[in-house]
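Our consortium's second objective concerns turning raw sequence data into structural hypotheses that experimental partners can test. To show how far this objective has progressed, the report includes one record in full. It was chosen at random from the queue rather than selected for favorable results. The single chain below, 541 residues long, was entered without modification.
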Amino acid sequence: MSDNDVPDVRVPTPWARFARWRPVRVVRAIGAVVVRWAEPSRDYRLTRWLVTRLLGVVYVFAFLGLVYQALPLLGEHGLTPIGSYVDRMHTAGVTFWDVPSVFMWDASDTAILAWTYIGLAIAIAVLLGYANLPMLLVLWAIYGSFERVGQTWFSFGWEIQLLETTVIVAALAHPWDPRPLAARSPPVTALVLLRWLTFRIMLGAGLIKLRGSACWTDLTCLDGHFETQPSPNPLSAVFHHMPHAVHALGVVFNHAVELVGPFCLFGPRRVRLIAAAAMAAFQLTLIASGNLAFLNWLTLVPILGCFDDDALLAITPRRLRDVLRSRLHDRPARRGHRIWVACLAVVVAYKSVPVIENLCHHHQAMNRSYDRLELVNTYGAFGSVDMVRHELVIEGTLDADPTAATWHAYELPCKPGDMARRPCVLGPYHRRLDWLMWFASMPEPREQAWQAYPWVFHLVYKLLDGDRTVRELFAVDPFDGQPPAWIRIRRFVYHLEPLGADAWWTRDSEEEWLPPTDLRSDFLATVLAEFDWPSPSVYTP
């Protein structure tokens, strides 16, 4: 037999053998169905460009909030110092692997500011249009470090939503090329993950409303929402004083968007685009009607992932459209990028099981994480709506006798206090103390207030002690930095007046929430000792 007669027997490569493995073939078949459903013939680079830039906007405002609020809230002289919190965790045997945060190693003020400014610098780059996988993962790691030790100040649902959204947008971004338009097209699987996130956010919010309060089925929730929401803006008065019929139609639209719209994301392209447009309009309405921090801006990020480049170009002015088309050259994602996004999709699918169980459960949790990295979470918002707005008013006096004293109010920047002051406009900016004071004002038994809101009493102690750090959180200090002799807190019911009235607010139903208290209070000292917060001598300037 000659050499030419030797049969050509090729040894399969390891990759070829792996591809022939039955479970892999099943996964590839399912993936092919998903890809056909997602219409891979359409490009998503313009979509990626918008998604990453909007995420950059959210991160810029999130880190700006930390620039101005991190030390007064979490620093060594803050209301709930990270250092004390980390020390208690270390004493209990908690390690970095239990709470993945860089502050488990160093919780000093220097470390807090350093990580804040690093995050802000990267966020600005993302906002300007430069975003790749490593940049987004660094943002995720830094912000996650704050979220996991931020205690009550980071207890909002949009904190974990921001972390999960960042991981999925990181899968959408190029592994190294930071140019969203010029880099290769994103894997279609990443777009599917964005739509799955949109589905869970919207459906979770819709179901929690049906299960949380009868006013959502009675179509009356919006009669009170615009007045009682945490931080109204000037347009809230317009929305609040609309007729009940308009409010009822708004509730119906809310239910249509949050309960029907999510399922349309899995329908034909035109149905998906209509549903996504309705969701976007809904979020823009919420932005216009109040200051809900960056929640609605963040929710717009995965909603934008429901649009393809053709849909976005169709609403773009012709001249700009031609420029964009000249910059969009279809180049599919590399195999390595597609593989790692597919692996992420498997992780998300596995971790979505408890999320789906929660959505189907009658006692649905509103905002909850199921792992220490907050990779896949469940969401919800405004499961109940208060019809009465309570507000706490902190007042101080320099007089020695509190029974015959003249009292003056401290004013937070974006919280109703002075009835003649116009409500603020915040956009994506989040004033955390203002929001938490809204929670603290809710009508709970005052005897339990120190357990639910111990930081309120720490705030009182710091004002009495003359601490300068905490005064950065106030818009009005009636004593210009001088510590008062006494502090008291009164609670009122506030009413939002129509636009153009003599004042923005009226108030009534006064009651005492905290009686006149001075620095010698044994009760305040007990609260500080309970949480290992520094003694008053540390604060004295």
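The partners drew two points from this record. The chain has two domains: 45-378, 389-539. DSSP finds 22 helices and six strands in the chain. Both points have been shared with the crystallography group to help prioritize constructs.
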